[in-house]
Amino acid sequence: MKSKRPSLPSQRNYEYAYTQAYELATGELAKVKDIEERCRNGGAQYLEAGSQKVIILEYLNRSYRIVLPGVEVSLSGSQEAVPLKTKVLLFHYLLHAKGTPLSGRMITFKELPEGTIYSPTFAKRTLNPLTRNFGKSSHRLVDVAEKVGGQKAAFGDVSVTVGAFPRIPITLVLWRGDSEFPPSASIMFDATVTDYLPTEDIIVACEAIVWTLVRSLKPD
After folding, report:
1. Looking at the structure, do residues 141 and 86 belong to the same domain, yes or no?
2. Is the peptide bond before 113 cis (omega within 30 degrees of 0)?
3. SS3 at position 99
4. Is residue 2 included in any domain, yes or no?
5. 86 and 123 inside one domain
6. How many CB atoms lie within 10 A of CB 55?
7. Which domain holds residue 60?
8. Are both 134 and 198 inside the same structural domain?
9. Which residues of 204-214 are buried (b: 16+ CB within 10 A; e: fewer)?
10. Residues 143/146/148/154 CA torsion (nearest 10 deg)
11. What are the start-end ranges of the H helices in the chain?
């Protein structure tokens, strides 16, 4: 009997899953007693304003404001609504952040806990769109990455490192391919990444980075 690969859930299942995850994470964050320490661990700014506790957290080069105890989330300097998926990711980062220093040792997705199992899902949501949109114009990756604070890296034919969160640099790598091999891509992480987010959330963060870059593309 053939083993079944993980499949992508339907949009309805996504919405239900994120609603459940949001409710759980909101409850957990509201109960945290050492929230100031969690902020230090995650490189977030912590402020107190009367009875309110305010967290300023950078995500994809944008500043988010989380106010406790009501757990309200807003985008600093903007009236733009914060998507539920983003809120969940912000909460999970704060809840999981251990403050571990970067190791400098790079790993691939398959080296993460259950990375091999989720590899097909990861490829479909991140590597495939990355290759499809940048594989034949890899030089453009550096330009669009700079718009979200990314920097050129030294892997593959072209690569960039983008700070998803203060303690989570994510490196996107492209190989241009040739007459024998098509373009391909990889995404790499510091080995400490799971001290800040579980594997499922790492997929979400990578997907957000890829599509942020794709949306920044303009015709040559």
Report:
1. no
2. no
3. coil
4. no
5. no
6. 23
7. 11-96
8. yes
9. bbbbbbbebbe
10. 100
11. 11-31, 35-42, 84-96, 115-122, 128-134, 139-146, 199-215
| pLDDT tens, residue order, the chain (220 aa) | 443 433 334 445 667 788 889 999 999 998 998 999 999 999 999 999 888 999 999 999 999 999 998 899 999 989 999 999 999 999 999 999 999 999 999 999 999 999 999 999 999 999 999 999 998 888 899 999 998 899 999 999 999 999 999 999 999 999 997 778 899 999 999 999 999 999 999 999 999 999 999 999 866 5
Q: Are the C-beta atoms of 56 and 166 separated by less than 8 Å? A: no
Query: What token pair was written down for 209?
Result: 């980075």
How many structural domains comprise the chain?
A: 2
Per the structure block, which two tokens stand in for 190? Answer: 């510091």
Residue 67, strand partner residues: 54, 72
- Tokens standing for residue 165: 């969160």
| Structural tokens at position 133 | 């949109």
| Among candidate residues 96, 119, 150, the one where a domain is terminated | 96
